[in-house]
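pasting for ref
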Amino acid sequence: MDIVERFLNYVSFDTQSSEETHTTPSTEKQRVFAQYLKEELIREGLQDVELDELGYLYATLPSNTSKQVPTIGFIAHMDTSPDASGTDVKPSIVTHYDGNDIILSKGLVTSVEKFPELLAHKGEDLIVTDGTTLLGADDKAGIAEIVQAMAYLQKHPDIKHGKIRVGFNPDEEIGLGAHHFDVEKFGCEFAYTMDGSEVGEIEFENFNAASARITINGCSVHPGYAKDKMINAARIATELASMLPIEETPEHTEGYEGFFHLLNISGTVEKAQLSFIIRDHDREFFESRKAEMFDIVEAINEKYGEVATLELKDQYYNMREKLEDKMYIIDIAKQAIAEAGMIPKIKAIRGGTDGAQLSFKGLPCPNIFAGGLNFHGPHEFCSVQSLEKAMMTVVNICKITEQELGK
């Protein structure tokens, strides 16, 4: 089976996760796909294939070298985003893409003007949707690349490698992918998530992240008799939101710039609620942003009485602090990408990754490109050539690890 056939087979499975169920996995259809993958891994000759009760799948490709080589791993997630339908995906392949707009089957246009990243793939073969669903390259491209690489290594025993572990998890798209990942069972010195986008990218920096929920309790009085009595929670909520710097929001920031993001605001005179996420690559700035949120709530309470309460929770941290003294892991990935014919591109993630949470659970785990673009919607596409290059990057990492770290 070639990588395209494998990928197209995978995207036929509907594996959307859900924030509503509060189960693991969050949807049974992820378990269906996991069971299929388990059987495929066995057919491909992998060992120690295990699917646990929470939908996490682990397997091993044994070492074929006499050297003592660190065990390394490759990880991808099985779920697709709840943001767009993943039911009955109908992909097609645009061969030798000519650089023009792509007309999808429902009259939807993936235009070069809106999606200029298309032009970087002129002349390649693009796998696209029919305009009614997402594609699922996030992250079934990563799964296909990992499985294909394991098959490739078995067909080419002249490529020496140590013990390789693979892990496929549910529920990454709802932020829970790493929560039940068994790092001890996985047993790796380091690993890579195959969950990035454009070819050549390596990501080992991500946002520090927190969520903030503010509740404002007001006092409702007939507006005709409200002087010095009414406390309008809805109006105070808008005042509080305006106290945050407008230039430090997602729509005004890029690169390493952090932000406050108002996700939701709702309320009445009696009660109002605001939900925020707080993001910054710099840990010190991140802590300052959290302190600023507390200061704003305190200022509101000083002005109106004890009307506002803040619930703030850290979500994940920048994995760079866990990788700074292990940059050989990044160097191996850079060399592997270069040997696969690409220019390595170090990029900071303006978001999070399972690898960040895994790094803080004791498994250093940077992120590598998987080749898909325009995730979470009908304009998602993936280049066949990108799939192939990512697969060879996995192969090269295994080879280079044996050459550089084997003893």
